[in-house]
Amino acid sequence: MLIFGFVCSILIGISLGLIGSGGSILMMPVLVYLFLVNPVTATTYSLFIVGFTAGIGSINYFRKGLVNLYIALIFGIPSVLSVFFTRAFLLPSIPSVVFTLGNYAVSKATFLMLIFAVLIIIASLSMLISGFKQKSEELNQRHLNYPLIIFLGALEGSVTGLVGVGGGFLIIPILVLLTKLPIKSAVGTSLIIIASKSVIGFSVKDNSDSVDWYLIAQIIIFTLIGLFIGIYLSKKTDALKLKPLFAWFLLLVGLYIIIKETFIK
Predict the structure, then answer these.
(1) How far apart are alpha carbons 17 and 10 in whole angstroms?
(2) DSSP state, 25?
(3) 106 has which bridge partners?
(4) Rounded CA gap, 204 and 199, in Å?
(5) Which one, 36, 53, 160, 261, has least CB within 10 Å?
(6) pLDDT tens-digit map of 165-212
(7) Buried/exposed code over 193-214 (b: 16+ C-beta within 10 A; e: otherwise)
(8) Does the CA dihedral 44-162-28-50 come out positive or negative?
(9) Is 204 helix (H, G, I), strand (E, B) or coil?
(10) Cβ burial, residue 240 (10 Å; 0-12/13-18/19+)
């Protein structure tokens, strides 16, 4: 299982390098089902791993001038604040048993995994039906819908804080549709946002739990290997053709988590 977990870490990195988003959402199930990390603790580990990987991945976008710092601040500040408050107040307030259905008790860990499964399914469906093609438009700061961007930034941050995902599958469509950023600039800008809020989210953790830095370091190394492989392959492969296959895979993972958490106990 450990070896398979490291193989999956490489595959996550490859997907990030190839299509720019979506791969990091698989880190949670890999941590929980392959590395046997408690789901609540896995949200913390996932934040650090995803944030570190996103920070490394953003360097290449910075060099190419594909990071819009103004948009990163407008969307990122409410997102970062939302991550902090979610990790500091909302997550600890969730009871150990969230609710019961007859003889079936839904624990906090199961509740988080079910929320996560729904997010994976939403991400997969958005990949299958989107392909948000945009016309070439100049970024016009006067026409930005600031209240909506700030609201969505805060909403996306709460998702990150709750289940430990990077949120690129949510951030990129928002940036493209609301700010008219080109896809590549949206990806580069999203990586900066992900790295920033992941650092904040990881810093707000339960100090009673010791962090397995050795495991985190191993996963990061394998994920970065995959990231560089993905970046190399992206120069020789049409990533858009691979996106539907990855989306179907995400859909299967989401359905598996729901079945695993509700029927196979």
Answers:
(1) 11
(2) G
(3) 99
(4) 9
(5) 36
(6) 777 777 887 888 888 888 778 888 988 998 888 888 888 866 556 789
(7) bbbbbbbbbbebbeeeeeeeee
(8) negative
(9) coil
(10) exposed
pLDDT for 22 beyond 70: no
Q: What gap in Å lies between CA 197 and CA 23, rounded to an integer?
A: 17
CA 179 to chain centre: 20
CA distances from 82 to 49, 79, 225 (A): 19, 5, 31
3-state secondary structure of 48: helix
pLDDT tier at 216 (50, 70, 90 boundaries)? very high
CB burial readout 14-44, b (16+ within 10 A) else e: bbbbbbbbbbbbbbbbbbbbbbebebbbbbb
Strand blocks (E) in the chain: 97-101, 104-107
Q: Please check whether residue 219 is in contact with residue 7, taking contact to mean a CB–CB distance below 8 angstroms.
A: no
Query: Is the distance from CB of 28 to CB of 38 less than 8 angstroms?
Result: no
CA pseudo-torsion sign 155, 159, 164, 170: negative
Domains in the chain: boundaries: 2-262
Q: What DSSP state is assigned to residue 105?
A: E
Q: 58: burial class by Cβ within 10 Å (0-12, 13-18, 19+)?
A: buried
- Please identify which residue in the block is written with the tokens 């913390």: 44
- Global pTM? 0.81
Region of 61 on the Ramachandran plot (φ > 0 left; ψ -120 to 50 alpha; else beta):
alpha
CA distances to 36, 86, 118 from 192, rounded to whole Å, are 29, 20, 25
Q: Which two tokens stand for residue 135?
A: 């016309």
Q: State whether residue 93 is helix, strand or coil.
A: helix
| Residue found by looking up tokens 């299982």 in the block | 1
